[in-house]
Amino acid sequence: MKRPSATKPSLTQLNLTFFTDRDLGKAVPRLLRESGLNVERYFDHFDEGTRVPDNEWLQYAAARQWIALSHDNNIRHDREAIRTVMESSGRLFVLRGKVPSPDLAALFIQAEKTVVEHLTEQRHAFIANVRRTSHRGGVVRAAAEMMLTFDQWKAGRVP
Prior knowledge:
By secondary structure, this protein is an alpha/beta fold. It has a single domain (about 10-140), classed as Rossmann fold. Helix content is about 35%, strand content about 25%. It has seven helices and six strands. Strands 2-1-3-4-5-6 form a six-stranded mixed beta sheet, sandwiched between helices. The radius of gyration is 15 Å and the shape is globular. The model has no long low-confidence stretch (mean pLDDT about 90).
């Protein structure tokens, strides 16, 4: 991991807890922990054989002020899940891409700068995507992009 900036905190310096959903399995949380993050796994709180509805685990994470991480791309269009995030002051990052678990964990770590920006600048609930983006010259970078803020949701914007 890169050295933290003197002016911007790193994810580890923010001392936040991240909650990984069922779709991220066991490898992603382990790899994020190895990178120095505080991570609570879905499987540490819910039975492995049980599929808890999205709105339930999202509420669970938000009630504890944990940052939710998901790999479920459909959650971005689930009105009930979106409402749960917004009404419970949740913060959700959706890790996008059909890649192996180690690459998903690396994607999140590589997007640290923009993840930190969203976490420090947004005072209310939000949903953001974390994915690779292409830039000039064929450079590919990982970044978190805001999908929906609480204010946008309150104003009636629907993704």
